[in-house]
Specification:
By secondary structure, the chain is mostly helical. The protein contains 13 helices and 3 strands, in the order H-H-H-H-H-H-H-E-E-H-H-H-H-E-H-H. Helices cover 54% and strands 3% of the residues. Its EC number is 3.1.30.1.
Length: 292
């Protein structure tokens, strides 16, 4: 290998190592939610998604599900839209109280309002719209994942566990990252061949173990197209019961924590995927889509 080549390799490797780590369901979590969702789309919704996805996605929604995370630095306004911030130990979600950008204090800016926002934009599909609906699709697909991650609706006081340092087995980690990525990674490492094998296992449970519940997950009250307030409420309840429970600054989280928590993560990934599909099906099955 010539000297120039070595320099090039070192440069590329350093660049990759310097990439900031993302703070949302890791890429795997988002990809899993989107894979589950895309497989459940109606013919109409599948066609609309195919049309809206950028060519580079090759009609694979999961390949673009972390796009919104890559924007957080470029578009600081979008940063607050990945979370809702509940008061310490409240363990419930209230729109008027908790949907706020903590950095600016501006109300109505959180993952709950973002899902409603991008749902409404997508309803303009097939009309002349000022919105970039490709972006609307990628945002809603990402945020439907985030809102199902319990600590994305955790306490504002510790930034959803970002300020709580724990050990994941031997490795130092934030509690937030444990729920974004570590539990999923450890599961795949221990129980599955790869991410697709894991998705298969979740899909089997959607059609068997959880079959009786799936309709409830899909339904919103009245004629709502998505009902993010419900998803956020469930998340903060799980955050209190499972994520914060038994995990404080300096805790060592190992098998005892992992084995009792991974079923919650699996359920949330399944619900995220089922509900993303249900929302997209409702959006694109409206009269607007029929006009295309
Ligand atoms: C709604 O979407 C627009 C376009 O992406 C964005 O500028 C605005 O900040 C969003 N608001 C919320 C609450 O998501
Ligand atoms: C819409 O957004 C996508 C993703 O950011 C971008 O690639 C595309 O060029 C945008 N389309 C228009 C018409 O601006
Ligand atoms: C599927 O359901 C079974 C029975 O409840 C459970 O043991 C298993 O962990 C579940 N797997 C996934 C991936 O959810
Ligand atoms: Zn996110």
């Amino acid at each position: 290998m010539g000297c120039y080549r070595v320099v090039q390799v070192v440069a590329i490797v350093s660049f990759v190592l310097l990439l900031p780590n993302t703070h949302a369901w890791g890429d795997d979590g988002h990809a899993i939610v989107c894979k589950i969702a895309q497989a459940r789309l109606s013919t109409q919704a599948a066609a609309a998604v195919k049309k809206l996805l950028p060519k580079s996605a090759n009609n694979d929604l999961s390949s673009k599900c972390s796009w919104a995370d890559s924007l957080r630095v470029v578009f600081p306004w979008s940063s607050a839209l990945h979370f809702a911030n509940t008061p310490k130990d409240a363990c419930n979600y209230k729109n008027s109280r908790d949907c706020v950008d903590l950095k600016t204090g501006i109300k109505g800016r959180c993952v709950v309002s973002a899902i409603t926002n991008y749902t409404n934009q997508l309803l303009e599909y097939g009309t002349k719209t000022k919105y970039n609906l490709t972006q609307s699709l990628l945002f809603i697909s990402h945020f439907m994942g985030d809102i199902h991650q319990p600590l994305h609706c955790g306490f504002g006081s510790d930034r959803g566990g970002n300020d709580i340092s724990v050990h994941w087995y031997r490795r130092k980690q934030t509690l937030h990252h444990v729920w974004d990525a570590s539990i999923i990674e450890t599961e795949i490492e221990r129980f599955y061949d790869d991410i697709d094998d894991f998705v298969d296992a979740i899909q089997k449970n959607i059609t068997k173990a959880w079959a009786d519940e799936v309709e409830d997950w899909e339904n919103c009250r009245k004629d709502d197209i998505s009902c993010p307030t419900i998803y956020a409420s469930e998340s903060v309840e799980d955050a209190c019961a499972w994520a914060y429970e038994g995990a404080s600054e300096g805790s060592v989280l190992d098998d005892e924590y992992f084995l009792s928590r991974f079923p919650i993560v699996n359920l949330r990934l399944a619900q995220g995927g089922v509900r993303l599909a249900a929302a997209l099906n409702r959006i694109f099955n409206t009269k607007y889509a029929a006009e295309m």
